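tool_call: predict_structure(chain=1)
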Amino acid sequence: MTKILIVEDDELFSNTLREVIERDPELQVVDVINNEEEALKRVRSPAIHDCDCVLLDLQLPFRTGDKNVSSLAGIRILEELRHQQGFYGTIIVLTNSKAPADGQRALAAGCDGYLCKRAKISEVPQMLSELKMAIKGEVILVASQMRHVFIRDDISAKEARMLDLLAIGKSWAEIARELGYKTPKAAANVGDRVFDKILSPQDVAKVAAEGLKKRHKALEIWNSRRMSHAR
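tool_result:
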C-alpha cells in the first residue's frame, strides 16, 4: 500500500484528487493538510516517514483561514522534507504556476515531479492516470510547459538513498524492500541506470579497460561527492 500525504489549500481540487487516488486499491491518502503551519508540524514529526509520497502545492496560506498565500510556502516545506528530515519518498509539486523560475526552485529543493494544475478538461483523465503512476514511483511526471526545466541527469532523492544503502553493504533484496521495488532485479535495474548517470565517458572507458564493475566505480565517485559536500 502506497501512503500519500496531500498538502493543498484548494478544497475542491484536493477532494477530487483524493477521490481519484483512492479508486486505486494500492493507494491510500493518509491526510490532507491545507496550510504551511500544519504541514511543517507533520513534516517534522516521525509520522512523515510512514508516508511514501507527498503531493505538495507551492502556494499556501500560513494558517487555515488566512486570506493571503505565500508563493514560497511549498518550497519551504519541500526543503524541510529533503534537507532537514531526510525524506526519501516521492514528492510531486502541484501548482497553477507555469513560471520556469518556480519549476527551477522546486527542482533545486528536491522534488521528483511537477504537475501544472491548469489542464484542459480533455487532458484531465490522462493527467490523473500519469499522476497515479508517478505516485508509485513508476514515472516522473512533468507538465509539458515545464519539461525543459526538468530534463536532467542528476540524482533524485530516492536514487541517492539507493546509493547510500549500497555504500553500507545492503543487498538488492534489502534495497527493494526499503525503497518499494517489486523485486531485487527491479532494484538492480534501476541501480544500473543510476550508475550510468554518475559515470563519465572517461570513467566508463576506465571500467572497461581495467575490468572493473560499474557499481564499484560509481560508489567510489558517490562517496567522494558526499565527503566533499560534508566539508
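agent: Residues 214-230 form the longest helix (17 residues). Proceeding to next step.
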